[in-house]
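Q: For a teaching session next week I want to show students how multiple molecules come together into a single three-dimensional assembly. I've collected the sequence lines for a complex. Could you give me the predicted structure tokens for the whole thing so I can convert them for display?
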Amino acid sequence: MSDPMAEIRASFFIECEELLESLQDGLTLMEDGNSESETINIVFRAVHSIKGGAGAFGLDDLVHFAHRFETAMDEVRTGRLAPDADAIRLFFTCGDVLADLVRAARDDTPLPESKTEPVLAQLDALVGAQDEPEEEDFDFTPATLSLDLAGGDLAMPNLPDIPGLPPLDLSQDDADPTLSKTDAASGLKGFTILFKPDASLYASGNEPLYLLRALRDMGDIEVSCNTDKLPNIAELDPELGHLEWTIKIATDEPMEAVREVFEFVDGLCVLEISPNSGGSNESLDGEFETASALPTCAPLTTADALEKEVKPLPAETALPDIMPAPSNVEKQDPSEVSPEPVEQQKPTPPTDKATETTKTAPTQPRATVRVDLERVDRLVNLVGELVINQAMLSQSVTEAGLPPNSPVSTGLEEFLQLTRDIQESVMMIRAQPIKSLFQRMGRIVRESSASVKKEVKLHTIGENTEVDKTVIERLADPLTHMIRNAVDHGLESPEKREAAGKPREGRVTMSAQHRSGRILIEVADDGAGINRKRVREIAIEKNLIPEDMLLSDNDIDNLLFMPGFSTASEISNLSGRGVGMDVVKSSIQSLGGRITISSVEGKGTTFSISLPLTLAVLDGMVVKVGDETLVVPLNAILETLTLTDDDLKSLGPDTHVVQIRGGFVPLLDLGAELGYRPPQGKYVGGTVLLIGQEDGNRAALAVDTIEDQRQVVIKGLEGSYGRVPGIAAATILGDGQIALILDPSDLVSQASGKTKQRNASVPLVG
Amino acid sequence: MSLEVLAVDDSRTMRDMLNLALSSAGFTTHLAEDGVHGLEVLSNIEPDVIITDINMPRMDGFGFMDAVRSEEKWGKIPILVLTTESADELKAKARAAGATGWIVKPFDPAKLVKALQMVTG
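A: Of course. Below is the structure for the complete assembly, covering every listed component.
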């Protein structure tokens, strides 16, 4: 295993991304008016956790910024600051900067201060300047734990030598030899400590014995216990502290180090620490007597609580001279001797209350494993091969003429089902909610709207829609561009919007949903819509179309996708970066997707992207057209029908339509559209596939026969042949034959619609 | 001495670090993601000491400590609060909820171990 810290560091940055995501979620909720404390806490906690982790890795820039952000969120959390729209906008910006800082830290490329300072200044303006308060947070190191404090004379430079410390038997000291340097020769430096625990000290789970041990680790100690306050056994309340100790410690450590031993019990006891003075020897002896008087308490030890309080000292092997009583006490069964209520802690079944608490747990935390994406991809490919293999096997079984109820056939049936399950499970490994992508777009909206001085709000719908991880990654660039376009070109300026009777704040809506086996992503704005007159003019100016070309609205809208088209009369610094919608379109197509525009003047523009759910395997219908075998994606097929005379209507000289339940859809002759043969002209009794499209339009595809329905593995064609109109990809069928996979929507949109031979002239019917 | 430690923190990074620090020190480490989960884990083990974060979803450190302390059998398990804040107010609140001590993040593993030994003897 590699360096565990490096692994934790890597995992920290992954966690940061998750935290940044919940931060965005929380802020979005706040923006929508949710002011519940848990919502604010989500944001606070995200920042807080990032800070905590960053501190552990010494990522100071990140800590510094996160701290200031956290402070502001704390103000909100405690109700001292009302999160109005401006504040929330600033918090969003803070979230963005925080994300930048996280990535900068991850990639080890420091973010310039110019990125953080203005935001910090705004935070200061919001909550009031902070005097570097993080110092307070981070300089605190519990010195109880400090071993490396310089042992010096800091505390008592003038401490006189105290010759001879008879009671200190250094030979018996089992402490670290470096701590034993305080011996009679170097003289006693150290302190006298009066320690009187309150009952609350015991209640807090602290234990005087351990404190004494910690002191022992700092130097030689002499302990005396004052039992004067120990009441009569009848009056003894074991929950109360009755004992007090005087400890003399010989140490080179400064007083702070000694005091810090008591840090956790500060306020739970009376504590007096004074530097040892010359006369200490005498008092030491005196206290010794007190201590040695302890054994007389022994009879009382039947009282558990007392035992507890007495025991600590005896148990110390380092203090044998001081506490002669111990051994007998110490040898007792620990469970008997042991303290106060703790002792009852042996395995008792959980009480009802505890069980109840357990039951309230709404979800069991999910166990996760991080897997290299490459491994998953390999698995996906293997499943693809498995699907092909299974198809070939089925084919062989069929050809062998085995009856359907033969064991081989039934076994194969199960194999098929399993293959399908495996495939789905594997695809689920790669699927992720599209949320992370949407959140990144939130930032694009904020930044781009600020730079063009428009007021824009982003709405997201369906952010939990799961999409293949590869698809999500490859969608980032095209979506960014589309969002910038929407803000820059789609939406009007606030003034224009008001003049048009719209709210000043423009709205960009991103949605994702599964529709008929594909993912539909839409980016919509409520702007002015496409200015078709202007688009046409520009296209003519740029020689993209001839001046007299007749274009439908849809054709004009699609001009936006032509290479070299840009509508902004001045290229703004936002979207005009030499990357046009043509690039967006080709990136979507490379994902096997399609992009369409719809626009209503004055109401806005919507871009719709439709993507295949997976990039690897597809459910298809195998059809024959002429001599060719083709695969039609099953999800595009609404139904299959056999045409009757009544269904079929002629429309114009070249085309037919099919009447389906009162509606008409155009009939396309697949063989003719793909150029395999001329249109057949006669379709009655023939088979058609009713194809549904994202835009709701339908078409009927005439095929010769339907052969089968099966899963096929998608093998890309574009690498070898470029993009073929109407064809999405290819696959290998069970018999080893290669079949083309149809892209029905593309085919329909490019179709000629010719279903008749030129010479056949039929008048329009019905 | 092998201590059995329950560490409760909602941050995975922090849990990883605690796990590393504690396991390297030879302690048996149990991890939980928040107070509710902590109580679940606690009902199956008998740790010598508990470390808990304060700010966590579902049940925060205060709630968790309250719940632990309200069970007699858990009443005296030392609890160290793990926090980035060192404000006195917070310490007072933590103590009121039953904390034995506190560790300020970011922690030095050696100091963490010392603190654990400090409260467990």
